[in-house]
Amino acid sequence: xxxxxxxxxxxxxxxxxxxxxALAAGCRFFxxxxxxxxxxxxxxxxxxxxxxxxxxxxxEDEIAAMASIIGASCAGVKSMTSTSGPGxxxxxxxxxxxxxxxxxxxxxxxxxxxxxxxxxxxGAQGDxxxxxxxxxxxxxxxxxxxxxxxEIFYLTVEAFNLSETYRSPVLxxxxxxxxxxxxxxxxPEAKKIKTVxxxxxxxxxxxxxxxxxxxxxxAPMASAGEGYxxxxxxxxxxxxxxxxxxxxxQEAMMAQxxxxxxxNLDDIIRIEEYRLEDAEFVIVSYGVSARTSxxxxxxxxxxxxxxxxxxxxxxWPFPEARIRSLAKxxxxxxxxxxxxGQIHLEVExxxxxxxxxxxxxxxxxxxxxxxxxxxxLQEFSRGGV
Amino acid sequence: xxxxRKQETHPLDGLLRVDRIPHIWCPGCGIGxxxxxxxxxxxxxxxxxxxxxxxxxxxxxxxxxxYVNLDSYHTTHGRAIPFAxxxxxxxxxxxxxxxxxxxxxxxxxxxxxxxxARRNVDLTVVCVNxxxxxxxxxxxxxxxxxxxxxTTTPAGNPDGPFNLxxxxxxSGATYVARWTILHTRELMESIQEALLNRGFSFVxxxxxxxxxxxxxxxxxxxxxxxxxxxxxxxxxxxxxxxLEIDFDRGIVLGKFIETERPTCTxxxxxxxxxxxxxxxxxxxx
Lengths: 385, 285
Ligand code: SF4
Prior knowledge:
The structure holds 2 protein chains of 2 kinds.
Chain A: E1 8-13, H1 14-25, E2 29-32, H2 39-48, E3 55-58, H3 62-74, E4 79-83, H4 85-100, E5 105-113, E6 119-123, H5 128-133, E7 142-144, H6 149-166, E8 169-175, H7 176-180, E9 182-187, E10 231-233, H8 247-262, H9 265-268, E11 271-274, E12 281-285, H10 287-302, E13 307-312, E14 314-316, H11 320-329, E15 332-337, H12 343-351, E16 357-361, H13 370-381
Parallel strand pairs in A: 2-3, 2-4, 4-5, 5-8, 7-8, 12-13, 12-15, 15-16
Antiparallel strand pairs in A: 1-9, 5-6, 7-14, 11-13
Helix pairs in contact in A: 1-2, 1-6, 3-4, 10-13, 11-12
Chain B: H1 31-44, E1 52-56, E2 71-74, H2 80-90, E3 95-101, H3 102-108, H4 110-119, E4 123-129, E5 132-133, E6 139-140, H5 164-171, E7 175-180, H6 184-196, E8 201-206, H7 210-216, H8 221-230, E9 232-234, E10 251-258, H9 264-272, H10 275-284
Parallel strand pairs in B: 1-2, 1-3, 3-4, 4-8, 7-8, 9-10
Antiparallel strand pairs in B: 5-6, 7-10
């Protein structure tokens, strides 16, 4: 029997590192459904959960997988699912339920090229806007984008921590390349891994209101079977959790579920900067594309182009403030992503005409080679774009 | 005329979320009766109510979870069962009761029903079958009798309904019963048995929807009850494939299946858990 935190040095794929990250974070329930290229996350955790006292179940479809993890989380157990494009589409309605009922859970999307069945075995980053807006209605969501198997381990832990802190679903938006890439992964000792659990109620059970924010701005969460007699609904509800069909209740609930994220951007948003100090051209990228962009920065510098990289680790909420401040002082922004312009639209919006913005994109199925990014930078720097 | 005796309390006060009353159900609707039968059964069964959860989907019956003064979850349309499955498997000590309607459980949620029954997840599923989608104004359902009129079958329903007890039995349910809201005593007993049965238990409750189904099929609330009285036959030994709802030949009610088989959690523990872990747990006790 192996421990939950598999301390040691390994050569493992991103998908396996993701599963190990979940276990290290305290995930003890996984509801899954097979789909390429995310299946290995489920396969790995299926073997591991029973030995650490957790439960794995392969549900009948992704709708059920998503519903099951919300149910498990409401029972007080940290829970996760993993999927790819078609399954992610099926999960959307229940992701909205988790948002509305403020239920922590983690959804991993190992992206492949779409639309529809697309290229099942080949990667892409085409679900980034779906991650932001895929469930109906207006809401905030947290999405993280790892660039290596090592990082997917840490970001899966982080995804659970953010999810528990803010009582919100958190999306790990990886891609087939990172999911299937084998690299060195170091898993630290259990005591060196910070894990967070949801805020918990204190005081009178009778007076407890399940959606009344506590001191952190997030409502403490009671689990099923603890005697709080809570009611939880996906209908617009008040702080008691009771459905109230009024405009005022809608406004108050929305302010709460949006505000808890919007007020904590500094805590949620993680970015990494490379050679940005004197950069005239800034590449904005994430996930596997940030790796090819990193090489492009060095190559461009050798050609005399002052390039730098802003790597988005948190993609949603979008690091608007940093893009705005960069746009004021640089000559151009280049977004590198394996889609035909999704995060690019956000960069352009935040640049607000202060700096020109260019997309180096691809419809999916392969990575964007550094050479293509360098060429774009060259043309951009000559003013040719 | 005698003044009605002023009643301060309702016998189900402790179990009802009184501050949410009045409920949304129409006059003459059968859901209230099905709901109180479920609550009484929960109380009478002796199960630990603090560890009992009600999960509903969407629809008129789906509002049930909103009125019970226990932990209660009103989920998405059709997804009460997979939500409940996650909850039960994550915390097996909970008693998880799914209370929802026929449209929710058998059309949009049909796939989840058969799989939860196949796995024998230890859930109690109470289905109020009113033969149509009440909440949205009376559309055809997977349970609407052939030829019946609904807003989306204005000339009559060309399709046949599911035989729900047969579906439950064939999928692997270990307790299967059918009653109407008129048969409250048998119904309460059945729900109690279903709650105490270890495994996937299913109780179908035939219930009038006078406002939407009844109105279009020239069947008042009272007329529905009259049918439940005159056209039903109690046959506990009936075979599941003989349970088609036939208003002319008669509707068979009863407890049709009560059997034992390892639950989803039992089998997961015995098949997937390392032996050391299970033995460790035993020595801890
Ligand atoms: S519409 Fe029908 S099922 Fe719904 S509450 Fe009214 S009578 Fe009952």
